[in-house]
Amino acid sequence: MLTSAALTPIAVHYPGRGAAAMPPATRHAARCSTCAMRHLCMPQGMSAEELPKLEAVICTARAVRRGESLYRAGTPFENLYAVRSGSLKTTMAHRDGREQVTGLRLAGESLGLDGISNDVHACSAIALEDSSVCIVPYAALKRLCRESGAMQERLHKLMGEQIVREASQMMMLGSLSADERVAAFLLDVSGRNVQRGYSSAEFNLRMTREDMGSYLGMTLETVSRTLSKFQKRGLIDTRGKFIRIVDLEGLRDL
Amino acid sequence: MLTSAALTPIAVHYPGRGAAAMPPATRHAARCSTCAMRHLCMPQGMSAEELPKLEAVICTARAVRRGESLYRAGTPFENLYAVRSGSLKTTMAHRDGREQVTGLRLAGESLGLDGISNDVHACSAIALEDSSVCIVPYAALKRLCRESGAMQERLHKLMGEQIVREASQMMMLGSLSADERVAAFLLDVSGRNVQRGYSSAEFNLRMTREDMGSYLGMTLETVSRTLSKFQKRGLIDTRGKFIRIVDLEGLRDL
DNA sequence: CGTTCCGTTGAGGTTGTTCAAGTAATGTGG
DNA sequence: CCACATTACTTGAACAACCTCAACGGAACG
Fold first, then answer.
1. What is an example of a GO molecular function annotated in this UniProt entry (chains A, B) (predicted)?
2. Most exposed: A193, A252, B40, B132, by fewest CB within 10 Å?
């Protein structure tokens, strides 16, 4: 769990700015070993002698500006990533060019597993705000996994988690109404914020209404109308991309 | 790729009966090392000395009767499985009890990865016909993966494939019309048949219309109407659960 | 400070759902 | 092996949820 104070301000106190608002010194202090990477790289039970190897492998950082892609569908897969600050969306395209948002990654979460099956990325990853990621060369990580059972376990869990998360998303798309989907999405983001040590009630969702709609299988207009409706009912309080959940139970009950 | 002649009749020549139609002797002959397990367990590049270890770990079989569950959501995760004959669906439930079909597994495909993240299964797996699976104890497989890079690679690819498959399914649910979804589904099953050495044009889909609807995010009535429409247009030829694809290109063009 | 992108809201249309009835398959016990 | 019970599939008609098109106000950004 990411509880490092260094990252907290990014999401909570500088909601409109992202990583850019964090002073460079702080940014530098938030090295992988003390921040988001915990989640990917610091399984409990990793021995003192394994840790340095791990850090040697993983700790290269990369900045991605808002709108830029970290990787593109169809390009060779080489690295996994952990979001250090900011947030990204993953998208997938049809033959006919239609694109859909398939995922949202917040600070502390991992990225890039879609490339493992074919050595080519199946999705594109695009920054929703100026962000920074840790680069984890897959080949090196694989080697490490053969040396360390804890590391192997961690990687398996990461993949397993994504499998379950995507299955839940399929369920959501397949059997929930528009209202239910929006509510479930807000609760999901809220829950992930709690996991990462942030507020469950307030957050900045850097996706546009169109991104949300694409992710939730509906149009941007329906997203907007649904959020307005929730607001009228006193369930949430929204001002553009900033969202406060007022009645969490109310959202859960649909 | 599963090309064993022993399995072919199951899907092609005994469409109405499933594994039950195969004589017991044949069934016994179709041991893991020669059949479905290839896909899970016989990565290219596995050395002669690794192979026996592998077989020692994986080759326990289990029969699952139509309608029975191989595992249930919420039960402890211990094994992965490879479908040896027959087919299963995976389902996931909401808090409120609503169930949705989240996957279809044909002979040669793997099953159970949904349990890795939490050591508890997230889905249930239910046989669509009398089926048989190979049991692969996860703990033993993990050990093996640390000894064999090829095995590690294979497991990673399996998980990666499921991640990509589920992302595609999300796309389908999120942005395709009912017609497109049904067509995509038929093409998907057709393609998987080809991969497994069967006919791309003819197959028995043991799911009910309700299962398909649940999987595709629509009602059973819409599935039925859509299939009827495709039939009228000369795209497919259906008689209950048996489906022949007449105009593959036509389906691709929507 | 203008331009572009984003968000909101309304009116009307379409797709897919719901409810209902009837028919075909499947499985079971006699 | 047949008659029956059950489950699965098909089709129709009315309705609702969501989409499309359109117009406008506001925020973000160079």
1. DNA binding
2. A252
